[in-house]
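User: Can you write out an input/output pair for a complex, sequences first and structure second?

Assistant: Here is one pair. Inputs:
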Amino acid sequence: MAASSACWFEMAQSSCDLCVRDGGEPIVRKDKLRIVRVDDAAFPAFYRVIWNTHVCELSDLATSDRQACIEAVVTVERVLRAQLRPTKINLASLGNMVPHLHWHVIARFEWDSHFPHPVWGVAQRAVDPSPRSRLPVTLDGLDLAIRSAFD
Amino acid sequence: MAASSACWFEMAQSSCDLCVRDGGEPIVRKDKLRIVRVDDAAFPAFYRVIWNTHVCELSDLATSDRQACIEAVVTVERVLRAQLRPTKINLASLGNMVPHLHWHVIARFEWDSHFPHPVWGVAQRAVDPSPRSRLPVTLDGLDLAIRSAFD
């Protein structure tokens, strides 16, 4: 394998968490990718776009697959914006712990526990009432809107 | 402006830091986007792809512009992989503090101060000798490789 396309982890596909588990609550299943919702009380509108086959980095995908992956991310982003009017959308492909291509798509609000810092930083405030109760739609409604966007 | 495309910040373009400043050491300037290197001692191989015009979210771009933006991110990613053989590439579009579309492209290493956590989290270890001295190429060499990839 060429140096630039190698995955610098000694992680066999068989031991990759995203090869053997959904990685969250399944919302949409497509041939090449899936959308799951992450169960995070602090950030209830938190979805992942997960590429089904095991690749480590975005640049490992062929151009057409990369476009399909990003358009799926953007479709989730559009639904979150339309349904929630968040302060900001956060997108990230990190994979330091699970080097299997997946995108975090997170609706952020000025009132959330970490804003304006990334969700991976230090909490800035306690949030009460709960983040989930502050959303203008239910998570079931949000999931449904995402499913509809992929129909 | 339609609800789904509005920017939920009361930030006039004239007060946007990325509308008035480069946002880092300029490496590549193109009509629609620029590449800058971030001066971060802990993460020396840290670049940003910044869309030149003021848009808040990836979904605000037309499809062809979005593809151009992502292909620029991927081009930087490819150079970092080829030149540095990092443990992982981290990509993120956050913009909570500066809601002007920009992508962080960061080469991560198992030895870096925060690995396997995101760079925005809590440091896991002290790093000595310096991160910059551990890279297999100089930053000038890395900048040059990125410039060449955009020629």
